[in-house]
Write a structure and sequence with these properties.
The chain crosses the membrane at residues 76-95, 116-135, 141-160, 231-257, 263-288, 309-328. Keywords: Membrane, Transmembrane, Transmembrane helix. By secondary structure, the chain is an all-alpha fold. It has one domain (43-328). Helix content is 79%, strand content 0%. It contains 13 helices and no strands. The protein has helices at residues 2-9, 13-30, 38-42, 49-66, 72-97, 103-138, 141-164, 167-180, 186-201, 211-218, 228-258, 263-290, 302-328. The longest helix has 36 residues, at 103-138. The radius of gyration is 24 Å and the shape is globular. The model is unreliable at 1-9 and 26-32 (pLDDT under 50).
Length: 329
C-alpha cells in the first residue's frame, strides 16, 4: 500500500513543469492586471545610458561627414544635422549632470529631436550606399535607396534579435502594457494576443518563472476573444497606411512630376520609404530606450509616427527636385 502511494505521488519533471505552468496561469488570471515594470525588467543603469547615445551619435555623424552624394542641398543639410546630433548628445549629458534644472522634462524634449536627426543621417547614408554601389547596376537611385533602407533596417532588427534576444521581448512588453492600461475589450484582447505572439516567434527561450513572462503569457488568456488579434492587426495596419497615405498625398504627385519613375514605381518608392522610416523609428526608439536615456514609458505618439515619414519623404523630394532646378538655372 505504501509502495502504491509512493507511485501515485511520484511525478516526472515534465508533469511538474505542466503543473507549475497551470499554477502560473491561474495566478495571473485572478490577480489585477497591471503593466510590466520595464526599467526593472531590463535593468538600466542611469549613469551609463548617455554613453550609448554619445557613441551612436558619434558613429552616425562620423559616417555622414565622411561621405558625399550628388545632391549638394542634402549634403549640406545632412552635415548640419550630424553636427546638431553631436551637440544634442552633449546637451543631454549636461542636462543629466545638472541638478538645478528639471532633468526629466528637458531630457524628454530632446529625445525626439535626437531621433529625427538620426533618421535623417541614416537616410543620407542609404542614398550614399545606393549611389556608390547599386545605382549603376539597378537603375533609379531613389527606388533602390528605398529598398536598401527597408532591407537594411529589417536585417538589423533580426540580427539584433538573434544576437541579444530582447527586441521581440521588448515589443511583447509594450503590447501587453498598452493593453492592460485600459479595460479589456476586442482591441486590447488582440494586443494581448500580439504580445504572446511576439514571445512565441522570438528565437530565445524564456524562463517561465519570470514575472514579466508570466504576465504576458497568461494575463487575459482565460477568455480569449476569437478574431481579436486579426482585428487589432487590422487597426494597427490601417493606422500605418493612414500615416503613409498622408505623406503620399503630396509626395507622389511631386515625385512623379519631377522624377523619372512611372506612377507605379513612384508609389512603390514612397511606400517603401515611408514604411522603412517607421521600422527605423521603432528600432531607434528601442535602442534609445534600451541603452540610452529615453523614457521607457512614452517614446512614441502621433507626432513621432508622422514626422519620421515626412523627414524621409522630404529627403526624397529634395533629391529629385534639386537637379531639375539646377538644370533650369
Amino acid at each position: 500500500m505504501v509502495r502504491n502511494l509512493q507511485q501515485q505521488t511520484h511525478s516526472t519533471p515534465e508533469e511538474d513543469h505542466d503543473r507549475l505552468s497551470q499554477l502560473f496561469k491561474l495566478h495571473e488570471q485572478i490577480v489585477i492586471y497591471e503593466p510590466v515594470n520595464i526599467p526593472e525588467v531590463f535593468g538600466k543603469d542611469p549613469d551609463q545610458t548617455v554613453a550609448f547615445e554619445v557613441a551612436l551619435a558619434a558613429l552616425l555623424a562620423t559616417a555622414v561627414l565622411s561621405v558625399s552624394i550628388s545632391v549638394s542641398v542634402l549634403e549640406l543639410g545632412s552635415a548640419i544635422a550630424a553636427i546638431l546630433l553631436l551637440a544634442t548628445t552633449v546637451v543631454r549629458k549636461m542636462i543629466l549632470d545638472n541638478s538645478f534644472i528639471d532633468t526629466d522634462q528637458k531630457m524628454q524634449k530632446t529625445t525626439g529631436w535626437m531621433q529625427y536627426l538620426m533618421i535623417l543621417s541614416v537616410i543620407y547614408l542609404a542614398i550614399y550606399i545606393t549611389e556608390s554601389v547599386f545605382a549603376a547596376l539597378l537603375g533609379n537611385v531613389l527606388l533602390v535607396s528605398a529598398g536598401v533602407l527597408t532591407l537594411g533596417v529589417l536585417t538589423l532588427m533580426f540580427v539584433y534579435e538573434f544576437t541579444f534576444g530582447d527586441l521581440f521581448f521588448w515589443a511583447a512588453v509594450k503590447f501587453h502594457n498598452l493593453a492592460v492600461r485600459d479595460d479589456l475589450n476586442y482591441f486590447t484582447h488582440g494586443l494581448l494576443e500580439l504580445a504572446r505572439t511576439m514571445l512565441a516567434i522570438s528565437p530565445q527561450v524564456f524562463n517561465e518563472e519570470h514575472p514579466a513572462v508570466r504576465k504576458i503569457r497568461y494575463q487575459g488568456f482565460r477568455a480569449p476573444v476569437r478574431g481579436s488579434k486579426q482585428f487589432t492587426v487590422s487597426v494597427l495596419l490601417g493606422a500605418t497606411l493612414g500615416i503613409l497615405g498622408f505623406g503620399a498625398l503630396v509626395t507622389v504627385p511631386l515625385l512623379h512630376l519631377f522624377g523619372e519613375l512611372s506612377i507605379l514605381y513612384t508609389v512603390l518608392a514612397v511606400v517603401l520609404l515611408g514604411g522603412s522610416s517607421l521600422f527605423l523609428q521603432s528600432l531607434l526608439q528601442f535602442l534609445l530606450s534600451r541603452y540610452g536615456n529615453a523614457s521607457f514609458e512614452e517614446v512614441s505618439g502621433l507626432r513621432e509616427d508622422i514626422l519620421p515619414v515626412m523627414i524621409v519623404l522630404s529627403v526624397a523630394l529634395i533629391y529629385e527636385i534639386e537637379p531639375v532646378i539646377v538644370s533650369f538655372g
